[in-house]
Amino acid sequence: MDAFQTAFGLSLGLAAxxxxxxxxxxxxxxxxxxxxxxxxxxxxxxxxxxYWRHDGRAVLVFNRTQKTATYRNRDxxxxxxxxxxxQLTHHHPARAGAASADYSYSVLTFANGTELVVTNxxxxxxxxxxxxxxxxxxxxxxxxxxxxxxxLSRRLxxxxx
Length: 161
Prior knowledge:
Blueprint: H1 2-23, H2 28-55, E1 59-63, E2 68-72, E3 77-81, E4 85-93, E5 105-110, E6 115-119, H3 125-131, E7 136-142, H4 151-157
Parallel strand pairs: 4-7
Antiparallel strand pairs: 1-2, 2-3, 4-5, 5-6
């Protein structure tokens, strides 16, 4: 769905550009319809981009017998015990049919107060909940599941959606 949505948004943008070139001043009506529709498609693409940059090459490995886990991405490696995780907070979009419906993330809060953000590209929330059975689990519903450090996307899209 994401690839289709992105291609659709880009094609609408190209169609608007072609209409301006071909129709001149009469294209304002076409622009008024196509550009807002194209803009509506870009949050899904932006979510895919930021989620991939965050967890695209990351690895999360759980050892059930030893009750340990390792999270590794291109910046750091974190080894922890399953009992170190005291809270699991799942952030998901409020609307299931929206551009952001496929994107959610979970925040693992450790006993020392540090947090680890894991996107659903790496591990689903339900899998995390089964791997961390004694952990307090909460769910936060938000309009778009922007990552906590993704301030640019919040500024670009939040005023419009």
